[in-house]
Amino acid sequence: MNETSPVADSSANSHRIFGLKVPIFAIVTLVMIIAMYTDTLSKGMIGALLVMMVLGELFGFVGDRLPIVKTYLGGGAILALFGSAALVYANILPTGVSDNITTFMKSGGFLNFYIAALITGSILGMDSRILVKVGARFAIPLLAAVLFACLFAMAMGLLTGFSPQDAVVVITLPIMGGGMGAGAVPMSQIYQELLGQPASYYISILVPALALGNVFAIIIAGLLNGLANRMPSLTGNGQMMPGVEIKEEHTPLDISKLGIGLVISLTFFTAGQILGDFIPLHPYALMIVLVAAMKVMKLVPEAINDAAAHWFRFVAKNWTFALLFGIGIAYTDLGQVIDAISITYVLIVLAVVAGAAFGAGLAGKLVGFYPIESAITAGLCMANMGGTGDVAVLSAARRMQLMPFAQISSRLGGALILLISSLVVPIFFT
Predict the structure, then answer these.
(1) CB burial class (10 A; 0-12, 13-18, 19+) of residue 17?
(2) Is there a contact between 320 and 110 (Cβ–Cβ < 8 Å)?
(3) Do 49 and 65 meet the contact criterion of CB atoms below 8 Å apart?
(4) Contact by Cβ (8 Å): 155, 359
(5) What is the pLDDT of residues 41-59, one digit of tens each?
(6) Nearest of 177, 227, 231 to residue 206 by alpha carbon
(7) Were both Cys, which of 105, 230, 300, 384 would link to 326 (CB 3.0–4.6 Å)?
(8) Cα separations in angstroms, 267 against 254, 315, 316, 317
């Protein structure tokens, strides 16, 4: 199994779920279901992680084997995410279970735990020369993604009778803004100061665009993966540039490395939080800069680099579907997506996400990136819901090793959108 696909399709695993034979997995599932519906499931991490792993892997197994879903819509990734959201929306999952998972994901910090491992391990496991070569060019497709997202939205607005400035301010900017915490929430504060309505009013407008944009970003990521299979010249299969390969280390596994990698990832995450008290950027962005700077300056011993890479692979292999299931429970409100659906609104949101992917892919090719990898990282990961969306998009595209670049888009790109919002809104509305 490679880290870009949480479930392998090899014949050896065709009758196994999460490495377990189906009858054994069925027993595990039965025990979990009995505990869920008799209210004897443990609270906290034990109960939450059991449900997330078992149902996440089950949805992932099914989604990776549904013909159309697995080929074009992201396979198990999209089914784990939206399947769990559907369980909550249809009131199938007991409220106590969904509340426990939400607490574990948010207050318990499981999402941060996962992303810390991916950022630290993927960067420290990368050749420092490659990091410098790729990172220096990344700003160009990032800016192109924003430009083309705005242009596509305005064009679709004109075609459908929707105000072009509303298409940019109300739909495009929140979609490209880096998620809820780093995007919609601070953006609503900016709008409140500039336009006069309370922030809660703007949140109710911005969030549906964000949610629907995230859906399209995941779907388009799956479609791009299908395109990559049909037109291999457009893709590096998870590598950003021709001749520049982000290789996975294959050093022998030492159990002690996992513990070291865990501590190192949590330390870098904590350092990002500390820097966030002094520097007005999101802690994820600061964490990326710190890890990359220490890697480029060769301040991290090779043994620690290796340990962080091992921990990253362990987390990506074992907890990706679990995390996606938790994202569906804690962060994905199908009601908001459904309420936002109208033909005009959907078309403009689709235009935004498609424009972001097209602009990033085009500009990426001009600076030497593979168009599909550039479209996914600099485009779709700007148009999703931040960290949660990055995981879902990269899982759907089967390119989880691109997480460092996805996080640059979500965090540094999100900060760029807040700046643009503060400049553009007065021009359009005052």
Answers:
(1) buried
(2) no
(3) no
(4) no
(5) 999 999 999 999 999 999 9
(6) 177
(7) 105
(8) 21, 16, 19, 22
Distance, in Å, from the CA atom of 16 to the CA atom of 18, rounded to the nearest integer, reads 6
Q: How many angstroms separate the first and last alpha carbons of the chain?
A: 55
8 Å CB contact between 414 and 179: yes
Residue 9 DSSP SS3: coil
Q: Which two structure tokens, joined as six digits, stand for 369?
A: 């990136």
- The single residue listed with the structure tokens 């941060």 is 112
Phi/psi at 41 (5° precision): -70, 135
Structure tokens that stand for 79 in this block = 């089914």
Which is nearest to 187 in space by CA: 179, 217, 350? 179
3-state secondary structure of 64: coil
Sign of CA dihedral 126, 322, 288, 149: positive
Max CA pair span of the chain: 65
Segment 408-426, tens digit of pLDDT:
787 667 667 766 777 777 7
Q: Which of 132-141, 177-186, 280-289, 420-429 has the lowest mean pLDDT?
A: 177-186
SS3 content of the chain, % helix, strand, coil (to 5): 75, 0, 25
Q: Which of 144, 24, 47 is nearest to 97 (CA)?
A: 47
Provide the H-helix boundaries in 106-160: 110-124, 128-135, 139-160
Cα 212 to Cα 92: distance, rounded to the nearest angstrom: 23
